[in-house]
Amino acid sequence: MRPDTPAENVDHTAEAARLERTAGLYPEDAEALLLRAAAHLELSGARPAATTLYDRLLSTPAALENPSLVRALKASNLWEYGHEAEARAIIDGIRTTAPREPGPWVIIAESLEAHDELESAEETFTEAARLLLPDAAEPPQALHPLLYGRHRVRRMRGLPHDDWDTLADTLHTAPVTLDELHDPKRVWSLGSDNPAELEAEISRLRTELGAYREALSRPFPVAVLHWPAPELAELLSAYPTLSAEYPSHETHLTTIESSLRELSTSGTDNLGIVTGTVPSYEAFAASEATSPDDPTLLPQYATTLAARGRAVAWPPGRGAGCWCGEGRGYVECHGA
Questions:
Q1: For the whole prediction, is pTM greater than 0.90?
Q2: CA 327 to chain centre
Q3: Are the C-beta atoms of residues 74 and 58 closer than 8 Å to each other?
Q4: pLDDT confidence of 1, banded at 50, 70, 90?
Q5: From CA 40, how far away is CA 273, in angstroms rounded?
Q6: Which of 50, 119, 182, 252 is the most buried (most CB within 10 A)?
Q7: How many CB atoms lie within 10 A of CB 317?
Q8: Where does the source fall among the domains of life (predicted)?
Q9: Tell me: the pLDDT tens digits for 77-135?
């Protein structure tokens, strides 16, 4: 499915089936592909089938990158078709295990919010903030939804701003402020006879919808291939002819950053980085009936990894670590 395909033209059942078939071809990407398939099933109204996919993933939790995320999605889905008690039990379990990723926290808090459990939703957002927010003034991009969700629930409850609400206001860059977007009285303006009020509300809704689409429906990324140092050493040891492409690991990293900056300057949007491994590359070469020492195979491999959802957006968000994996912040490393 193309990312610009209108939602009303998508056959969600067929798309879910296609993603399941793709997951069978690429078992190393099965988690991401099956989660997308489950999302399509939910959109098609086949919520029990989506639960079956979540259970399929959870049958081997040790093989999952983020089992808490899968549990959170399952709980949210269960609650939507009448299994409230089971959903609450899963949500309580996630809060007890306190995952170190923001995704599960945001999903269970939004599920509570969607069912008018505003106090519990705020408690969940706050628990996550205490656990995950660093002392630095600028949290990484992945934590922004946590702050925005907490701001929204507290605004709906009529609570005064605290330091984290102020931080959320600072991080939000859309033309319409968070206070306006999250104002519980906004709905009243929809019943107004004043054209100016209605026009202002339509403008706010367009801004909110635009931000939502940007976050959830990013187009296919233009991805550059990155080899970690051990993988590059193994690659060049097995296929010395590729040394012309990669004179050294340091040069390789510098080339990635400069290439992405050139693409960005030329107006190319939605850039990303995919990380390669030698076994994966060899398997791809075999599937293409081509020798791995063929340098023309490298960009095809990068494109395939991006199509399988392996791309990480470039540049990293404010406060995020560098893409190279050295453990330093991007602005202190390749973003300097």
A1: no
A2: 20
A3: yes
A4: very low
A5: 26
A6: 50
A7: 16
A8: Bacteria
A9: 999 999 999 999 999 999 999 999 999 999 999 999 999 899 999 999 999 999 998 77
222's enclosing H/E stretch is: strand 222-226
What mean pLDDT is predicted for residues 245-270? 88
Task: Give the Cβ contact number of residue 128 at 10 Å.
Answer: 26
Distance of CA 181 to the CA centre of its chain: 22
Q: Quick one: tokens of 271?
A: 């850039």
- Four-residue CA torsion sign, 165, 174, 141, 80: positive
State percent of the chain over pLDDT 70: 87
- Mean per-residue pLDDT, 29-49: 90
For the segment 291-316, the average pLDDT, to the nearest whole number, is 85
Contact 301, 308 (CB under 8 A): no
Distance CA 171, CA 165 (A): 10
Residue at token pair 């889905």: 77
Cβ distance 123 to 154 under 8 Å? Answer: no
Distance CA 224, CA 247 (A): 17
Q: Mean per-residue pLDDT for 30-43?
A: 90
pLDDT higher than threshold 60 for residue 302: yes
Helix (H) or strand (E) segment spanning residue 226: strand 222-226
Give kind and range of the element (H or E) at residue 196: helix 195-216
Sheet hosting strand 271-275, strand order edge to edge: 222-226, 271-275, 312-314
Place of tokens 């089992």: 67
- The rounded distance, in Å, linking the Cα atoms of 328 and 316 is 12
**Is 206 buried (19+), middle (13-18) or exposed (0-12) by CB count in 10 A?**
exposed
Q: CA-to-CA distance for 232 and 39, rounded, in angstroms?
A: 36
- Give CA–CA dist 105/153, Å, rounded: 14
